[in-house]
Write a structure and sequence with these properties.
The chain has about 425 residues and is α/β, with parallel strands linked by helices. The protein is built from 12 helices and 23 strands. The chain has a 5-stranded parallel β-sheet with strand order 4-3-5-6-7, with helices on both faces. It has a 4-stranded antiparallel β-sheet with strand order 10-11-16-15. A hairpin with a 2-residue loop joins strand 18 and strand 19 (about 340). The chain binds zinc ion.
């Protein structure tokens, strides 16, 4: 029997047993932070909570949220619960405003990271005989390192090429026979473009079969484009520096994002009131790391909007799953009273025949009035055909049908929008 799961016991545990395990771990965690960190100790005291007050999973709601603001305030190591001496690895993400977010790991945290990433990559189909081209940027950012740890745990070969130097990427992909590609979805599309310019057919001339993509909000329609362009199965990854990096979820072959819930406890809250919502309802994702040592996050508000489900999945995993991220609440735009997420515009554009994967949303602000327009590159073939006003009109109609909002669309010549080797900049302000 081929091995279906990386960690069968954890991934197929009955839901009631999972909840028992979560509760046991949560109780330990609260004792642990109460004892080992001044900030958390004070936070519990201020909220009038003693560790023994946590008797059910629902009791977690008594604990105040952890916010980005807290992380900034206690930068860099104020939330560490071990000796600084016990930290063996540190990552950081560029803070959207001000100080970076720091992720410190003990030896045990590093092992946990490898374990959850191995689950994710195994669920994507990565095996020992695979060659994973790791084209996430190596550096402080968690991405590349998480993928490397997981792939090595499985025993796959990791090509540590990092991002950039795209022609070399293509040459190595060809020479090494890479079977898996890990990078941002937009970078994979740029790579396909460069491969074509170099005279290759991305579908035929490489051994690639699995894409492990993350670090970027992308629509389901964009996923289909990536799959078609490379002739691969494209998987979504999700994670945050504050939680562990990538590895929070494992996307199975039915494309469900199973949360590694024995280590990460998830809640969905109303972003305005902070009230806990039921499974299936859309709101902000809140995570608690149940087993991390160096920096446990308790009720961290992600600002990411999604829903969670506890239904059974055909893959056999019992771990709850989350929907794909609708967008960060930070990316949400309000135009003429309508709430707009960039991913909705992307999804609409991708419905239009002749529109390429390259587009930009242009945000303009005159006084207090925000307006949007979209610039898209048609495919080379469509561009040569002319009559681009038809294409623009069609795209405007698609966007209108999704948002009920008129957003002007302008076509621009192919290859004018700057390409990205990391996170694509889809929204620009003018
Ligand atoms: Zn599944």
């Amino acid at each position: 029997m081929p091995k279906e799961f990386w960690n069968k016991d954890a991934e197929t545990m009955p839901l009631n047993e999972l909840k028992e395990l979560q509760l046991k771990r949560l109780k330990n965690l609260i004792q642990y932070i109460h004892k080992n960190n001044k900030f958390y100790n004070k936070k519990l005291k201020d909220a009038n909570i003693k560790p023994d007050d946590i008797k059910t999973l629902k009791d977690i709601e008594k604990i105040p949220f952890l916010t980005k603001q807290d992380l900034r305030e206690y930068y860099p190591f104020g939330l560490v619960c071990t000796e600084i001496d016990d930290i063996v690895e540190v990552h950081a993400s560029s803070g959207t405003t001000g100080k970076p977010v720091v992720g410190p790991y003990t030896q045990k945290d590093v092992e946990l990271w490898g374990e959850v990433m191995a689950r994710s990559l195994w669920a994507n189909g990565l095996r020992k005989n695979d060659i994973m081209q790791n084209s996430y940027g190596y550096g402080l950012f968690t991405g590349a390192h998480g993928f490397e740890k997981g792939a090595q745990k499985i025993g796959a070969m990791v090509v540590t090429i990092s991002s950039g130097n795209t022609k070399r990427q293509i040459n190595m992909m060809k020479d090494f026979g890479s079977t898996a590609l890990a990078c941002t979805p937009s970078y994979s599309l740029y790579m396909a473009e460069v491969a074509e310019e170099m005279g290759y057919d991305p579908r035929e001339d490489f051994k690639l079969k699995i894409g492990c993509f993350g670090a970027e909000a992308w629509s389901e329609e964009m996923r289909k484009n990536v799959e078609k362009r490379w002739g691969i199965t494209a998987h979504e990854h999700y994670g945050l520096t504050e939680i562990i990096g990538p590895g929070v979820v494992s996307e199975c072959k039915h494309k469900k994002l199973h949360i590694n819930a024995d280590h990460f406890f998830t809640e969905i809250i109303d972003p305005d009131t902070g009230e806990t919502l039921e499974p299936g309802e859309e709101g902000e994702l809140v995570f608690t790391t149940l087993t991390k040592e160096a920096f446990p996050a308790i009720r961290f508000r992600t600002r990411d909007l999604a829903s969670i489900y506890e239904d059974a999945c055909e893959c056999g995993r019992t771990l709850p799953f989350q929907s794909r991220i609708k967008g960060r609440s930070d990316d949400m735009m309000k135009v003429k009273g309508v709430i707009v997420f960039p991913s909705q515009i992307e999804a609409a554009l991708m419905q239009v025949e002749g529109v390429s994967d390259n587009y930009q949303i242009v945000k303009t602000k005159k006084g207090n009035i925000a307006s949007l327009s979209v610039e898209v590159e048609p495919t080379e073939t469509r561009y040569k055909e002319g009559h681009l006003d038809n294409l623009e009109k069609q795209a405007e109609e698609e966007i209108y049908s999704v948002l009920n909002l008129r957003v002007p669309v302008k076509t621009i010549p192919p290859k004018t929008i700057p390409r990205s080797t990391g996170k694509a900049k889809r929204v620009i302000e003018r």
